[in-house]
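WARN no homologs supplied; continuing
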Amino acid sequence: MNQGPLNGVRVLDLTSVIMGPYATQHLGDLGADIIKIESPQGDSIRGVGPNGHQGLGPLFLHLNRNKRSVVLDLKQDAGRQALLRLVETADVLLYNIRPQAMGRLGLDYETLSRINPKLIYVGAFGYGQGGEYASAPAFDDLIQAAAGMAHTMAVAHDGAPQYVPVTIVDRSVGLYVYGTICAALFERARTNKGQKIDVPMFETMTHMVMGDHLFGHTFEPAQGPLGYSRLLAKARKPYKTSDGYLGCTIYNDAQWRRFLSAIGQAGLMDEDPRFASIGARTEHVDVVYGLIETELAHRTTTAWLDILNQADIPCFRVHTFESLCRDEHLIQTDFFERQQHDKAGEITSLKHPAEWSRTPASTRMLAPTLGQHSREVLAAAGYSAAELDRLERDGVIQTTTATDNSMETNQ
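OK structure emitted
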């Protein structure tokens, strides 16, 4: 089996639900050894959706492959001591509870860095620790509200604020955490020193939102309003054709000339100053997008795909969940993978999207049952069988009986 680029890196994953597990699954796909530390109750996302009664619901399966599950009751001193022993050989520790809670558990950076000075200690939580929100709880929906994302939906759709129906905050910040950890590992390779890193959800998403929408207030004094008008335009949406919907982006001058020629208005850019340049089109975006909306309503989706593809204008039929699962391109690239899980049965999983020429991502192990690897991991850390028996009797650790979910080939 090929070794991923992070082979040899050990990550203690003290995260649950979506944001942290999404970050560590990417690290695991690229070869890192991810040890998922769970409470005796387990990651709450285990119980969401079909098969949740087995602790292997669909969200959990899609967020926790290439991980080993270790149950530790960190409220008991023996559980904390077991974690401290694992810290000795870890490269990274990632947590997503509030830092104040880590401090109460005696798992703050100062304590752990004394045990392992090379440890990269990463917290992914709600808010930066220098402000008044420092100790406040956070969830995806809450940060969508706080960072202005829900407001952008209200402006664009001329209605009430709305949440994006994807866990966009958890997954976006998770990717930021993933990149941050990779950068920290690179820096440590040069200095041989660990460090503490905070990745706050609020600031990360405000950076994303206001990167688009600070706009005229970028300058002092302001040279225009807040909000990038093209993104907030009411007509910026999938366009209705005579029999369906089509995504279509006509952006630069060359694309506009080809589109206008295709609809029999080749001279419009020269005749109407609102269409003459990208700046003018942005200023008059509702008029500009309104023209597209009006024109596309006159023909079928297939007819427009033929016209726009011939004119080399980016376009795509609007997928539903069902049609996306049948997309020929995704089938040809083996994006949806069928795999056999020991407990969950046959499952469809999603391939790691990046393609590497020499050290590709791989699926080496499907998502673990709760505590599946508790004894294995702690035995490797030096615990005897008798000690493990005692920890299990005392409820400090927990194990499940499951056969090996490891995969024989790269996926």
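The CA atoms of residues 139 and 298 lie 43 Å apart.
OK
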